[in-house]
Amino acid sequence: MTSAAERPASSGTSLSNNSLNKDTHQTDPLRTSNGVYVTVHGHFYQPPRENPYLDAIERQPGAAPFHDWNERIHYECYRPNAFARIVNDKGEVMGIVNNYEYLSFNIGPTLMSWLERYDVEVYQRILEADVKSSQRLQGHGNAIAQVYNHIIMPLANERDKYTQIRWGKEDFKSRFGRDPEGMWLAETGVDYATIEALIAEGIRFIILAPSQAQRCRPLPNKNDPQPEWYEVGGSQIDPTRPYRCYLRGNKELGLGNGDILNSPLPTADSQKYIDIFFYDGPISRDMGFTDVTYSSSHLAGRVGSAVRGDHRPAQLISVATDGETFGHHKKGTEKTLAYAFIEEFPRHEWTVTNYAHYLSIHPPTWEVELKPITAWSCAHGVDRWQDDCGCGGEGSVWHQKWRRPLRNALNWLRDQLIEVYEEYGPQFFQDPWKARDEYIKVIRDRSSANVSRFLSRHQTHKLTAAEQVDALRLLEMQRHALLMFTSCGWFFEELSRPEGTQILRYASRALELAGDVAGVQLEKGFIKRLGLAPSNVDVFKHGGEIYRQLVLTAQVSFKQVAAHYAITSLFNHHRPAETCNLPGQEMASKLHHPCQKRIYCYTVNELDYQLQRMGSLTLVVGHLKLVSEITWESENLVFAVLHLGGWDFHCCIQQFAGRREYSQIKDKLFTALQQASAAQTILVMTQVFGKDTFSLQNLFAEERHRIMRLLSQETLTRLDQLYTQTYRENYGVLMAFHRDELAVPQELQVAAEIALGYRCMTTLRSLEQEIAEPQSCWNQIVELEAIATEAKHLRCRLNIPEGKQMLEQLILRSLWQFLHDDNDNFSQDIQLLERLIDVASQLNLGISLYRSQELYFSCLNSQIVPSCLTSLVNKEDTNQCRQLLKLGQKLGVDVSAILSKLD
To answer: What percent of the chain stands above pLDDT 90?
Structure first.
């Protein structure tokens, strides 16, 4: 697009100016096809990992020390690419590049949803990158959409194909504020039925592997109406140009597998087409599997080797790989990309672009026909997601015979759920399948007002509260029926891996929701079919046992949520002691003003809560109303939890049966407690509630681990004090061992490390309280320096991850305060900050200054450098400028250029 400012001002403009503008436009590679263009596409994606009942990712031990794999890969890849460093030979930061401004990219909706919640700063950097790339590339942003939850499109039925595309489009539009021009297909899996759906939904282009093309030819024209076809089935297609792919009849293409294609193709319609880019296979493989991405000059050399020397006016060198390559699979390679985009590629006079922009200046002049059914990560079409084809085994002796039975079981379940949806959906929705396609708007915004608007748009009549619940259950059933086909479940060598277990959990939730709405019992038939999927792990034997051991045990009921709330309430200190044992009048008043809290995706309305203690026993009785924020279903429950001390809890739950019965329950339980007998209290609880009980083990993992730490804290504090005493009493002995270079007894060395770690954490907590007043922090800084000196002399390695995080945050907070507040004590404040950075290094905790660098760098050019230059021009005192710049050096930022001007 050409803005008004870029057009000739008027017809009276001189000929020479018009000619100059014309020549400029003709030679500008952003406006006309001219020269070599480079596109690096990153496919950024993480599968949905949320617990289907909690709508949250639980801790994943394999990702330690991070909470889960999303968090770990974010730290290694997604954030570093948003703030990619360009460094000098000293490792100092010379520039910070948002790689997403230069990468062509897709970010899966399930990953974007997580980023939006977890790190809004990075999320915003990604959105801003699309805007800036659009401004640079004539209105064509770098971002493209993705089929929603990464299902293999050729294996999906027709409705699921369209829903995946529509959800992907709507999710994209709600974030980037525009319609997507291109779409990434999971594993680049494609067939002509998928092409037809993409065209129908207005997608202009896709990206495929060169191995997916069958033949190509120049587009027919008047001079050559029947150009010759060239067979390129062995990955011989020229990837330096885009291709147009027309829809043609099944017969002409030799396609006929109706089970896979799902729907007939048009007999002939040459006007319907999609444009396709084939990435350069050899370079893309090298980026993923060789060391070419560790050097920007090597990367540029590798890209340069693909440039065709046949004097064509323009060509595109296009590479595509998993975005996680840059930083996660290959540590630090986001820096390579940044330097290549900013320095190496421009040095060769290559234009960094994206596919949509290149299409706008260089439409296809060739057409292509595709192989029937293909993907980029399987040499056997799409068998990796349905058969024992060997892909994914990676040399393992394990088989993948479970793949076909798993696919068959899920296809069977999908079809059963379709019957449920088509039978019950019309009771609530004018067009049930249209409602499913638009349900993405609810998934993006589950606020009560938005859900109500959605139901009003689609309902056949004004729905009652119970009907609203069933309507939402049906839609959630369909959402989980889509999630259970996420490709990762088949990708590896064994069904019982987390990926396989996860898709079975989605299937389980869909089964449960179908039962809630229609009363159908499909689980037995599903488990029977899973029994045909043999596992490589002896303890499981087959998929049915995997389902029983790893899926059924992970289901969550309303009672479990209530038990979770009841037990954790003892540790949340959510009410002062005087509110216990409320008089009847006060309690009745409280019943009309419930206390509302949230547990994952459940709203907890606390209608009553009473606590009594008797010696070492604590008894809580309460009345809750739980509401699911997903389906709006709710339950009124009564709970009682007896804490016997330590790790021992006894919790019971039952349905609320009325205030009178609830009052009787409270009287019985608190009367039993007066006897100060745990056995008697538990006996009465069993009489009232029955034998089903909950304990600490039944809590959701996050909170269970928190409470375990709380319950251990007193013991750990005593041990810390004991180790500290041992350390102090044996300090001279320890020093003697080190002085004489003798092996220190393990017991003494451990005592020293624990004692110094305990002392360090105590000091850091004190510093955290004082940091808002820098002048009062000196004692803690001095103490930390002393601890660092002792640790160095005694060769102690302080293992305090919490201390590392605290120091990083303290430095960041102090720096932000220093840069944004008025500094009455400038020299003292900056000295304190420098000492804090120094002591963080001396403690050898492996802290990261990345966020502090980013904060300083953002102020360097916008505030610090202009201020320094102004002082220099006005011949003012530049001492404060020097101090500010030396602070940058301390943070690892290159300020040598401006610093040299002050000297």
So the answer is: 78
